[in-house]
Amino acid sequence: MNVAADRQYPGETGDNSYGQNLLTRVLAGTPPGEQPLIFAADLPSRVSRFADWPEWAHPAVVSALRAAGIPQPWRHQAEAASVAAEGEHVVVATGTASGKSLAYQLPVLTALADSHDTALYLSPTKALGADQLRSVTALTESEPELSSIHPAGFDGDTSTEGRQWARANSRWIFTNPDMLHIGILRSHQRWARLLRNLRYVVVDECHSYRGVFGSNVALVLRRLRRIAARYGASPVFVLASATTSEPGAAASRLIGAPCAEVTEDGSPHGPRTIAFWEPPLLESVTGENGAPVRRSAGSEASRIMADLLVEGARTLTFVRSRRAAELAALGARRILSEIEPDLAERVAAYRAGYLAEDRRDLEASIADGRLLGAATTNALELGVDIAGLDAVVVAGFPGTVASFWQQAGRSGRRGEGSLVVLVARDDPLDTYLVHHPSALLDRPVEATVTDPTNPYVLGPQLLCAAMEMPLSDTEVADLDAAEVLADLSARGLIRRRSQGWFIAADSDPHSSLDIRGGIGGQVAIVDGESGRLLGTVDAGRAPATIHPGAVHIHQGESFVVDHLDLEDGIAIVHAEEPEWTTSAREITDIAVGDISVHKRYGEVDVALAQVEVTHQVVGYLRRLASGQVLDSVELDMPAQTLDTRAVMYTITPEMLANGGIGTDRIPGALHAAEHAAIGLLPLVATCDRGDIGGVSTALHPDTGLPTVFVYDGHPGGAGFADRGHAELVRWLSATRSAIVSCECAAGCPSCVHSPKCGNGNQPLDKDGAIGVLSAVLAAVAPESTA
């Protein structure tokens, strides 16, 4: 066990006996013989660094902020606010609870106080937008000189009357990119008052805009800038971000214009104890092919949360899905009902899908202490002002370092000691991180990956832009979109006239574009008994997520799919509460197209290429909550093709033989290395394992060699394979370390097993995977294996 409670980090010192005592209590509840604590360290406190109120700030705004309990700003707040007030786009990238809101509230409210200027606020979640609206409303209501601003919300929860009032009266609209895309830009003539006077655009938690969603948001913001320019406005963008790598460059890609960055955090923070926790392998339960299975992170997190609540520690537990949030809360309540019944009623689940009034009540209950504990998805990760939490439990690494620190930062916001526990899932990335804590605690946060030039994203966005206002040749050239437009024109979707590019008269491109990642048609999920529409999923993901027999969760209700019709775009389900979950099994073929980057390292070749992936769902596994596989069910689903990008490497059979991997072991060795690499790519690219896929083969027809591919699971690519190619050595080194660190004998879900393997996780050669990765790294970067 690598427990280093005295580990030192840069910053101020600070006693955290409270956090250490909480960890001791949690350890006391561990069953005899188990040693799940892999690592612990104390992160010191940080002292405040203040600045004076800027001279340009409006006295009424300063008075309102002082009355709200802010005697003076921290340095980063004043610096970012001043850059924006001078008319320069700026991103402030500092930690959780560092008061980034003031960095935009100060210049926006100052500008709006004595003018007819307007502002727009964008957030990725409703909870965050509602929280910021409450804060700004309180400020404007406290000072008569700010009363004409009338901040108002405009999102899916806003009534028709509320939307009309906001459009007619509000000078600061709080919304999200989805509503900007479909509710404001599509009908921009109705929003002429807002757009004509638009002085500022606030983009909150901008690090969350990544991959296909981020690429779409980048193009939505470009559309906003061109429409604002039509009305004579040139707004300043103020962006707020978690601490990310190269925040200025990422923000510039997002808004399409140069952006200054402010990164030195002047806010205080109490000391924290960080603990990495790995549930044990279960002796009585086995998974696919008899592989060992760990106790689930969700059940472990429920037990830890219950122990913390008994100690009186206000606790937030982050989980990966809506269903997991419900189950974690139920688990903690069940444990508490046996030992502290009064506490059981002070635990709840919080997730998207609840009614707006229910969400607001839960947020208030967590903030004021009526609820002592809550299990939540990342819906409470961003921005919502919840102070006074004593502990945070993170059930499974949330996918990015930025998200981990956002979640961890929810604790200790009163400046006092706190505890953060990361509970590892049965997953290669989690295995790697708990055994290599420096990979999480000591390294920079990831750079945000976006690619607005992706033709599969750019095409639909161009149609929306052309419908809002004809595209000029200059705009087409600036976007490097001539080839994409030519394709759209050939399909009759857009046409060139002397005044520019015009969309077909009967088109409705806005409604068909899901900016959060759904590309292509949508499949409706309908309850066959009531006829109720439960939701939609894009057609590309439907075979793997709503195939016949799949368990589908909707707002806490469980359904089983009876029928999927891809042609008609409908899936029929019925209500059922099975004891198992399902995961699709797919078989995949891949063909290499254009190779954009290629380099040879002796007997190893590495490339970045356009590929055509053909995949077919051939069945699914049914698993109990323990991880035990009940059975495998076969399916006959149509094959689908995907044009995307992949990072790939080849290795000669001779080199493998020299490493002790004979011909008979090559398929299993490559297969295991591919699975583990998919699991570890999120370490270097801001993606989820579900965003990517992989193929390995002992003899690929396009290379004539043993080959491993890892590809983006989105048409055209989302930048993840490119990031893996750029960080190949760090990525594959971490992959090898994760396999070596796993305590299983021959492979398990914590290292080389994949939950969606079409070959039933056969063949897999754990030791062979280590050999393959060692050989590749020895060729590409000899120092990495020295």
From TrEMBL:
Domain Helicase ATP-binding: start-end pairs: 81-262
InterPro entries: DEAD/DEAH_box_helicase_dom, Helicase_ATP-bd, Helicase_C-like, Helicase_put_actinobac, HRQ1_WHD, MZB, P-loop_NTPase
Key word Heme present: no
Pfam families associated with the record: DEAD (PF00270), Helicase_C (PF00271), MZB (PF09369), WHD_HRQ1 (PF22982)
SMART domains: DEXDc, HELICc
Molecular functions (GO terms): 3'-5' DNA helicase activity; ATP binding; nucleic acid binding
GO BP annotations listed: interstrand cross-link repair; nucleotide-excision repair
Residue intervals of the Helicase C-terminal domain: 304-456
Domain of life: Bacteria
Key word GTP-binding present: no
Keywords: ATP-binding, Helicase, Hydrolase, Nucleotide-binding
Protein's name according to its UniProt entry: DEAD/DEAH box helicase
Lineage: Bacteria, Bacillati, Actinomycetota, Actinomycetes, Mycobacteriales
